[in-house]
Amino acid sequence: MGAAMVTVEIEATFERWQAAARALLSDGIAPEGVEWRERPGAPPAPRASKFFRVPPRFLELARQAAIAGDPGRWAALYDVLWRIVNERRDLLEDRAHPKVRRLHGLAAQGRREAERAEQQDVLRMEAEGGGAASFVPPGADLATLAAAAKRCQGCPLYRDATQTVFGRGPAQARVVLVGEQPGDQEDLRDAPFVGPAGEILDRALTEVHLDRATLYVTNAVKHFKFVMRGKRRIHQTPRLSEIAACRAWVEAELAVIKPETLVCLGATAARALLGDEFRLMRDRGRVFATRWAPRTLATLHPSAVLRGEDDAAQERLYRMLVDDLRLAAVAV
Ligand code: SF4
Fold first, then answer.
1. Residue ranges of the alpha helices (H) in 87-195?
2. Domain-by-domain residue ranges, the chain?
3. What's the CATH fold of domain 133-329?
4. Angle subtended by helix axes 240-257 and 142-149, to nearest 10
5. What is the 225 CA–ligand 1 centroid distance (Å)?
6. Least confident interval from 41-50, 70-79, 162-171, 316-325
7. Mean pLDDT of the region 151-155
8. How many whole angstroms from 35 Cα to the centroid of ligand 1?
C-alpha cells in the first residue's frame, strides 16, 4: 500500500507556502505525498524543526511564482525545493530540466500578473486624482518644495516612514543624481545617500572627480518603504503606483534646477523618468537628451554593487557605476 497523502491547506501567499514547505521538509514528506489546497483564513503551519539553506535565486523565483494565479504552483514549488534540498543543490542551473522550466514559466507568469496589477493601481490612483501633485506648490523654489513635501500624503508610504527625505544640493547644480528611495539610514537622518549605498556613491564620485557638494542628489520616491523582519527594517522596492504618485516631486525639483546632466541611479529612477521601455543593463551608460536635461543617462544604483555575490562581482558592478559616472563628470 502507498503512503497516505498529506493535505496541506494554506492561505495563498509565498510566506504561508514557505512555512508549510519547511514543515514538510522537516518531516521528510516527499512531494508525491502532498496535496496542496488554498483556503482563505487557513492557519500558518507549525514552526519547522529543522532549518534549510536554499539558493537565493530559488527564493526569488518562488516569490514571483507565488503571485501567479496557477493553482498548481504550490506543488510545483515544493517539488523543486525538495529536489534542491535532497537531490541536487545546483538544480536551477539545469535550465532544460522540466521542473526548472516549469518554475521559470510560473515566475514569468507571476511577474506579468504583478505588472498588470500595478498598472491598474496606477490607473486607479490617477483616476482618483491621487499622488503628490496636489501637494506640490506651483512655481516654488527648492526650500519651499522641501517644506511642502514634509506634508505629502500622496501615497501610503508616508504612514510608516520616519519622514520625507527630500533632495539635497544647490539649486545651481549642473548635475542631478536621482536614486530610488531613502534607505534605513537616510530615513532616520533625513538626507539622501548617507547609508552604505551612499558610501559607495561617494567613493565612485571621488574617483571620477565629481564633488558631491556641487551636485543635487535626490530620490524618485521620497519616503522609505520597508517591511519589519524582527527588529530590522528591510528595504522594499516601491510599487509602480508609488513611483507614479511621487513623480511630481522629482519633476518639480528638475524644473527648478534645469540640470545639464541628469543621472538616474538604478531601475526605479530610470523607470520614473525614462519610462517602462528603458532597460537598465541594456541602456546604461548611453547619453541622450530628455525633457529633463540635454544629457541624460542611467547607471546602476550603488546598492546594486553591495548586492554582488562576491568580491569579484562587486568590483565588476562598481566599475560599471564608475564608468557611467565618468560620463556625467565630463560635462562639469
Ligand atoms: S512617497 Fe512620495 S507621494 Fe508617497 S507620501 Fe511620500 S512624498 Fe508623497
1. 98-127, 142-149, 184-189
2. 6-115, 133-329
3. Uracil-DNA Glycosylase, subunit E (3.40.470)
4. 160
5. 10
6. 41-50
7. 95
8. 43
